[in-house]
UniProtKB/TrEMBL annotation, chain A:
One Pfam family recorded for the sequence: Proton_antipo_M
Subcellular location: Endomembrane system; Membrane
Membrane topology: Multi-pass membrane protein
Alphabetical list of PANTHER family matching this protein: NADH-UBIQUINONE OXIDOREDUCTASE CHAIN 5
GO MF annotations in UniProt: NADH dehydrogenase (ubiquinone) activity; NADH dehydrogenase activity
Membrane-crossing segments per the record: 6-24, 31-51, 77-101, 113-131, 137-158, 170-190, 210-228, 249-267, 273-296, 308-333, 339-356, 376-396, 416-439, 451-473, 493-511, 591-610
Gene Ontology CC annotations of this record: endomembrane system; membrane
Annotated protein name in UniProt: NADH-ubiquinone oxidoreductase chain 5
GO biological-process terms attached to the record: ATP synthesis coupled electron transport; electron transport coupled proton transport
Catalytic reaction equation(s): a ubiquinone + NADH + 5 H(+)(in) = a ubiquinol + NAD(+) + 4 H(+)(out)
EC assignment: 7.1.1.2
Limits of the NADH-Ubiquinone oxidoreductase (complex I) chain 5 N-terminal domain: 67-117
UniProtKB/TrEMBL annotation, chain B:
Signal peptide from the UniProt entry: none
GO BP: ATP synthesis coupled electron transport; electron transport coupled proton transport
Name recorded for this polypeptide: NADH-quinone oxidoreductase subunit M
InterPro entries: NADH_Q_OxRdtase_chainM/4 (IPR010227), NADH_UbQ_OxRdtase (IPR003918), ND/Mrp_TM (IPR001750)
Family under the similarity heading: Belongs to the complex I subunit 4 family.
Any Pfam family hit: Proton_antipo_M
Residues covered by the NADH:quinone oxidoreductase/Mrp antiporter transmembrane domain: 137-426
Gene Ontology CC, one term: membrane
Gene Ontology MF terms: NADH dehydrogenase (ubiquinone) activity; NADH dehydrogenase activity; ubiquinone binding
Its membrane topology: Multi-pass membrane protein
Annotated PANTHER family: NADH-UBIQUINONE OXIDOREDUCTASE CHAIN 4
Length: 616, 511
């Protein structure tokens, strides 16, 4: 297996191409089979690879061909495989396979079934290229590739303008980050002469000292790319809108894999970030700020998918926090557990939406506990893991992040406390969702229950969300070892108990209603604050007025081509002269005689005034 | 002789196509297609007998014997004017692009042209002949002659077979190119005169005129004459305003040739003449030229975003993309130049395809106004999917040719000036904005009821075949561009050597 890792992304790619070319002629069952099986084979091959890797810990490098070779710039179509790659590949193919299986039932009635699987397979291929690339340019290919697939899938139901709008927003906002990242690539190549990640980090360590300004600029540019893709402040605004896509897409792309690409990118280039401590602080601050902002926003949402979207933004904030404090493997660990429980929650919400006539509003659901038991347990487990209740997978990963954040000198305790506030909010909003949707009065009757193709992926993900915390991710060789010290025990106890407090609050407010917050919510301050959070802190409004409208205005202003005005002036000038001169040719003898005489007088006067000698 | 034959086949083929209309009015397009394919085949056969271009030594700019092909015969010996044609890697790439896109243009005219079909195909072939001449002529007067030859048939194509406002557009096109052509002619004559006063010999040959010694100021002004002529053609900001009108009004095949090939003659002229003939003057001018390039990238993208006319939007996107070519040329290092050459090829395919889609829409809907479209994917999924492919190609998706081009340009440019690179890179964002808007307004969005009972016909096999050629070309250019890079490499290498000295000074000036 280790000689041919390139077939792993190739299989879904081929399947995607086949679906694009022949999809309209294939039967539904064949389309589904092709779509699921291709990712399934990739998952199996990844498993084989994982077993081999566990035995020999062998890093694999494979080069297919040189992409282009110009004046010393020679990135290859070549792959690099280590423990980090393995974790990412396992998540992509494993969770990806489950979501593909789920989709066969979810999308069954859709007339564009083949197009859906073509895009989804293409996405898996691009995402695999992203994590397997051995150089930043090939990574960028995967990076943009997943961006386009995300655009295509968010706008999958293209007949609604709003979906197209959301899709374009997703692409363009991330493109802003991507462009900055491309500039980072230009800078790194210009300074170091290679984009091959391992060689580049090596060269960087030889060329630069810790704290130099060029690695700082390069890291900041890379952060821009990561922030765009991973929906962190200030480029997070596209993710909630991206929920316009089919729900399994949200599970795969906008929860489990693509949005964590930014985390992967920073982890992959951590050697560079270690040279720029300021950049790491920036990452940590962005992470914690995003995490809190999104948690408050999630608290107020009523659309089930938007709650999950903001919670994704918030959880990726934790991963950024981890990266920023140098807890690299904790960040990647949280990436993995988050992929399990967030895919589970999204698929669960997909099942609800599927069975409840496309209802998205949680207050129109209610009482689903008995009628959709599989989904109920999925949400219970998923929310417990999301809230980081003890012994769930989310607990292990989030706990590691918070404890390591605490140990950071200076900023540490502050980051830790902010992180705890986020954890409290997370527990409240996740159990608010559970209590409102699954308990209480039934407002909408489901018209069906989930079939096996939905139930199996949900069950498997439940299992993973429970036990994922006991997995050992093989990244010890990839990242520098942490010093292994532990903070005081009380820090640990507080970290464990905060989510439980959140659960209690949610229970009191949304389940037995002992705690009445209506008065608070209806007060002027409460209301305006609530609306402020509901709108995502008004950031969309701000961007709309700061960037979108001025750009439309500018385009509108220039539409009629002001530059052409200059040429229009030349034309007008010509026409005026033409007018004068043709007016002179009036055909009247008197006018001709008069102008001849006038001309003669002028000539004679001129001649008389000329210095002598000129005329001789 | 091969090069004379290449041009001759097209010229005579044009006559044949015109005459063939007398027998059957479906004949001209078949004849024209046969002629172009024959030409292409002939070229490939001749090439197969030659040494691999990559194995050739770098063709020394001033030694014709090192070129892939060279032909010289007296024309007006008294003034040193000769029929001198030569082919090196870059001209070869351009000639191949011309013939392939020529065939694609004929395919685009298949059902689009309904009147005077014979004369149309004749004009098309003659225009191609002129372009081939431009790419191969190395006698400056002959070059000027071909420069004019390619324009006149193009003028007819717009003026006779164009859309509602064709008269205005054709005249504008003609005046812009004539005026700039005149500047070039004056510059050519001035250069020849200076060479004559230096050496006492009349010669219009490129090889004799290279390294002509002259005063710095003189060189600057003569260089500017060439520069303006070529930049008008490119088109570079602010000389681009003829392009949107010409494109919008031209028949589809005309747009394909205009965008795919004619624009590239401007870029070719800059690489072949404007810089090498006046290395010092040209590279001292590189800063303003790069600023114009960056301005074109930004301005073209913003204006494209504001358009409601499908074809006009693509026309402005060309202004933006050609800005990258200008940047690449004046950054004048191998990375950037390779990017510029790559952009010439990749943009040729991606834009030609988009214009064909625009033409197909106009043929079916009788409008180019995107406000009348919306949701066309529903009825024409194949056309929609193809459009999506070329839209993402044009916004620079990695894995397709345009990305390689733009990335190489930016990479080369970054070494020269980081800030201009930043400005140019914003084109990647604004490019995405207008490209996706095009897609949204035409193929996506709510299905427009207006067309529901029109029975719109999706792309048929002829159209899909044509599109497939361009798609495959872009994919190959995107993931394995090496053949193109290798073909251009020796030429760029020798051009860079020719101008080595000034490059350093420019780098210092710019920094």
């Amino acid at each position: 297996m280790s000689e041919t890792i390139w077939v792993i992304p190739l299989i879904p790619l081929l399947s995607s191409v086949m679906l694009m070319l022949f999809g309209s002629r294939l039967k539904i069952t064949h389309i589904g089979f092709l779509g699921v099986a291709s990712v399934g084979i990739s998952a199996l091959l990844t498993l084989v690879l994982a077993v081999e890797f566990m035995q020999n810990q062998q890093i694999i490098q494979e080069s297919l061909w040189t992409w282009m070779e110009v004046a010393g710039f020679a990135p290859g179509i070549s792959f690099y495989f280590d423990g980090l790659t393995l974790v990412m590949m396992s998540v992509i193919t494993g969770v990806g396979f489950l979501i593909h299986l789920f989709s066969t039932e979810f999308m069954e009635k859709d007339p564009s079934y083949a197009r859906y699987f073509a895009y989804l397979n293409m996405f898996v291929a691009a995402m695999l290229v992203l994590v397997m690339a051995d150089n930043l340019l090939l990574l960028y290919l995967g990076w943009e590739g997943v961006g386009v697939c995300s655009y295509l899938l968010v706008g999958f139901w293209y007949q609604h303008n709003a979906n197209g709008q959301a899709a374009r927003k997703a692409f363009i906002v991330t493109r802003i980050g991507d462009t900055a990242m491309a500039l980072g690539l230009l800078l790194l190549f210009t300074e170091l002469g290679t984009l091959d990640i391992q060689a580049m980090v090596g060269a960087a360590n030889q060329t630069w000292q810790i704290g130099d300004s060029i690695p700082l600029i390069a890291c900041l540019l890379i952060i821009c790319g990561a922030v765009g893709k991973s929906a962190q402040l200030p480029l997070h605004t596209w993710l909630p809108d991206a929920m316009a896509g089919p729900t399994p897409v949200s599970a795969l792309i906008h929860a489990a894999t693509m949005v964590t690409a930014g985390v992967y990118l920073i982890a992959r280039t951590h050697g560079l970030f270690l040279l720029a401590p300021t950049a790491m602080t920036v990452v940590a601050v962005i992470g914690i700020a995003t995490s809190l902002m999104a948690a408050f926003t999630a608290l107020m949402q009523t659309d089930i998918k938007r709650i999950l979207a903001y919670s994704t933004i918030s959880q990726i904030g934790y991963m950024f926090l981890a990266l920023g404090v140098g807890a690299w493997s904790a960040g990647i660990f949280h990436l993995m557990t988050h992929a399990f429980f967030k895919a589970l929650l999204f698929l669960g919400s997909g099942a609800i939406i599927h069975c409840l006539h496309h209802e998205h509003n949680i207050f129109k659901m209610g009482g689903l506990r008995t009628r959709m038991p599989v989904t109920f347990w999925s949400f219970m487990i998923g929310s417990a893991a999301l809230a980081a209740l003890p012994m769930t997978s989310g607990f292990f990963s989030k706990d590691q992040i918070l404890l390591q954040a605490y140990q950071l000198p200076d900023l540490g305790p502050g980051l830790w406390m902010a992180g705890l506030l986020g954890a409290l909010l997370t527990a409240i909003y996740s159990f608010r969702l559970v209590f409102v949707v699954f308990f209480g009065e039934a407002n909408t009757e489901p018209d069906k229950d989930t079939g096996w193709r939905m139930a199996v992926p949900l069950s498997v993900l439940c299992f993973l969300a429970m036990i994922g915390g006991y997995f050992m991710i093989p990244v010890a060789e990839v990242f520098p070892a942490s010093d292994g010290s532990h903070p005081a025990h009380w820090v640990e106890y507080v970290s464990i108990s905060v989510p439980l407090v959140g659960l209690l609050v949610a229970y009191l407010v949304f389940f037995n209603r002992r705690l009445n917050i209506d008065g608070l919510a209806n007060s002027t301050v409460g209301k305006s604050l609530g609306n402020f959070w509901l709108s995502g802190w008004g950031i969309d409004w701000l961007y709309d007025h700061l960037f979108v409208r001025p750009y439309y205005g500018l385009a509108n202003l220039l539409k009629s081509e002001p530059v052409d005005g200059i040429y229009g002036l030349i034309v007008a000038l010509n026409q005026t002269f033409n007018h004068w001169l043709s007016a002179a040719q009036s055909g009247r003898m008197r006018w001709y005689l008069a102008s001849m005489v006038a001309g003669l007088i002028i000539l004679i006067t001129l001649a008389a005034n000329l210095p002598t000698g000129v005329l001789q | 002789m091969i090069m004379i034959n290449l041009i001759g086949i097209l010229l005579i083929g044009g006559l044949l196509a015109m005459i063939s209309e007398r027998f059957d009015d479906k004949m001209p397009r078949k004849v024209a297609m046969a002629v172009v394919l024959t030409d292409l085949l002939y070229l490939l056969m001749c090439l197969s007998g030659m040494p691999e271009i990559t194995q050739l030594q770098a063709p020394l700019a001033n030694d014709p014997s090192t070129w892939l092909m060279h032909f010289k015969s007296d024309w007006i010996p008294a003034f040193g004017i000769s029929i001198e044609l030569a082919l090196d890697g870059i001209s070869l790439l351009m000639v191949l692009l011309t013939l392939v896109l020529g065939a694609i243009a004929i395919s685009a005219s298949w059902t689009d042209i309904v009147v005077r079909k014979g004369f149309f195909e004749a004009n098309l072939l003659w225009s191609l002949a002129g372009v081939l001449g431009v790419f191969m002529a190395l006698d400056l007067l002959l070059f000027f002659l071909f420069w004019e030859v390619m324009l006149i048939p193009m003028y007819f194509m717009i003026a006779i077979w164009g859309h509602e406002n064709r008269g205005y557009a054709a005249m504008k096109f003609f005046i812009f190119t004539q005026a700039s052509g005149l500047l070039m002619l004056i510059s050519v004559l001035a250069l020849v005169a200076i060479n004559h006063s230096n050496t006492g010999v009349w010669s219009f040959s490129y090889f004799d005129l290279l390294n002509t010694q002259m005063a710095e100021q003189t060189a600057h002004w003569i260089m500017l004459g060439f520069f303006v002529a070529f930049v008008v053609k490119l088109p570079g900001f602010p000389f681009h305003t003829w392009l949107p009108d010409a494109h919008t009004q031209a028949p589809t095949a005309g747009s394909v040739i205009l965008a795919g090939i004619l624009l590239k003659t401007g870029a070719y002229g800059l690489i072949r003449f404007a810089v090498p003939l006046f290395p010092e003057a040209a590279l001292n001018f590189s800063y303003p030229a790069m600023l114009l390039g960056a301005a074109g990238v930004v301005y073209g993208a913003v204006l494209a975003f504001g358009q409601t006319d499908f074809k006009r939007l693509i026309a402005y996107s060309s202004v933006s993309h050609m800005g990258f070519v200008l940047l690449g040329i004046y950054a004048w290092n191998e990375l950037a130049l390779q990017g510029a050459v790559m952009q010439m090829v990749a943009h040729g395919f991606s834009t030609a395809a988009l214009f064909m889609i625009a033409g197909s829409l106009q043929e079916r809907l009788h409008t180019r106004d995107m406000r009348q479209m919306s949701g066309l994917w529903q009825q024409m999924p194949r056309m929609g999917a193809v459009a999506m492919f070329f839209v993402v190609a044009s916004l620079g998706l990695p894995g397709l040719g345009n990305f390689v081009a733009e990335f190489l340009v930016l990479l080369g440019l970054f070494k020269v000036n980081a800030w201009i690179t930043v400005i140019a890179a914003t084109g990647l964002i604004t490019g995405a904005a207008y490209s996706l808007l095009l897609m949204q307004r035409s193929f996506q969005g709510e299905v427009n009821k207006k067309w529901a009972d029109h029975g719109l016909i999706d792309f048929g096999s002829r159209e899909m075949l044509t599109m497939a050629v361009m798609m495959i070309a872009l994919i190959v250019l995107g993931i394995y561009p090496q053949p193109v890079l290798d073909t251009a490499h020796p030429v760029l290498q020798s051009l860079l050597e020719l101008t080595t000295e000034p490059v350093n000074t420019v780098a210092e000036v710019v920094r």
